[in-house]
Design goal:
The structure is a homodimer. By secondary structure, chain A is an all-alpha fold. In chain A, 69% of the residues lie in helices and 0% in strands. Chain A has nine helices and no strands. In chain A, helix 1 crosses helix 4, helix 4 packs antiparallel against helix 5 and helix 4 crosses helix 6. The longest helix of chain A is centred in the middle third of the chain and has 23 residues. The termini of chain A are far apart. At the A-B interface, helix 7, helix 8 and helix 9 of A face helix 7, helix 8 and helix 9 of B. Chain A binds a DNA duplex through helix 3.
DNA sequence: GTCTATAGCATGATAGAC
DNA sequence: GTCTATCATGCTATAGAC
């Protein structure tokens, strides 16, 4: 039996994501990640060409995880499925805010999700939105995504300081966007 | 007549914003800003307590500028005024992407706009959205802002790689959100 | 208000031994 | 694959002279 690798890909991506959520994306440094997986910084360069490649590992992983959760949630009528997918996104963003920002607005193109990781997510979204806006599903998908991502980002950044019920605002916004999309 | 200050507040904030737009928020360092205004780094600590305070100067300035432009654009019927304000936001975000992210999701609460700078912007928005959603203007304002900010962020981060007409997607999304908000 | 000088630290990345 | 050692660079922030 082969000697077990000290740094498996799973452990590596888990370490990156954990550091990112706990200390922020800037804290994902070669040495911090190395320490988390129990090696020295130079050894990491055998696994990832540089810091951004490390972030991309996390971005791809998070993209897959988010897609899984949206898929699992999206059942029922087209409208209901879309609403459930949006709520799944919000739940994911609440649980993994840094990973979410990595998926939607990474610090540089090489740190964001690869095209291969994004493709299935886009396909799922277009599929889900098609019944509501068969004439222009791409615009509709962008509208829904932009709203949901913007809402979650602002929520996490404390942009909603006016008080009020943020959960209710999410549900009202979701209803409004879905209402507006129907053509 | 008093000797003119080498570092006026105007020059300082202009330097911060220029560096931020040109090289990114991370490039706004004490020494970079100092060099831009023609002094040494330690001298800056007389003007701002630390790096985040420097960013807040830019955030407050950008907030005022954005509000001015939205105000100037928001004429006509309530619906038309809101659409124009949203387009003004998109234009501002295209011109000053880093400042925009500073306004809506700064890297830390002390780097974002001060409450004093935010208040008039919130008031304007609530006022503008009130005719459409008199029963819950706060949720409506959040929905519109979240969508517009999310759209602009994703646009700038190259999240719309599927091609298609992004301008048209913006207009369609805007129409959909405004349609959905009317109660 | 500005300067020089410096402390103190973290970073990304590489060379070469094992 | 991993290590030690190291380079070169950058940063925030402070002390104290002028």
């Amino acid at each position: 039996m082969p000697a077990p690798q000290r740094v498996t890909p799973e452990r590596l991506v888990a370490a990156v994501r954990e550091i990112a959520e706990r200390d922020g994306l800037d804290a994902v440094t070669m040495s911090a990640v190395a320490a988390a997986v129990g090696v020295r910084a130079p050894s990491l360069y055998k696994r990832a060409a540089n810091r951004h490649a490390l972030l991309r590992l996390a971005a791809d992983d998070a993209t897959r995880e988010l897609l899984d959760e949206m898929r699992a949630a999206a059942v029922g009528s087209p409208r209901h499925a879309l609403a459930a997918a949006a709520r799944a996104l919000r739940a994911f963003a609440a649980r993994c805010p840094r990973a979410t920002s990595l998926v939607f607005s990474a610090p540089g193109p090489d740190a964001g999700p690869s095209a291969a990781a994004m493709a299935p997510a886009m396909a799922f979204l277009l599929d889900a939105v098609h019944p509501l806006s068969p004439d222009d599903p791409l615009s509709a998908a962008r509208t829904l995504t932009a709203w949901a991502y913007g809402f979650c980002t602002m929520e996490q950044n404390g942009a909603f300081r006016q008080g009020g019920d943020v959960d209710a605002a999410f549900e009202r916004g979701l209803a409004a966007v879905l209402r507006g999309l129907r053509t």
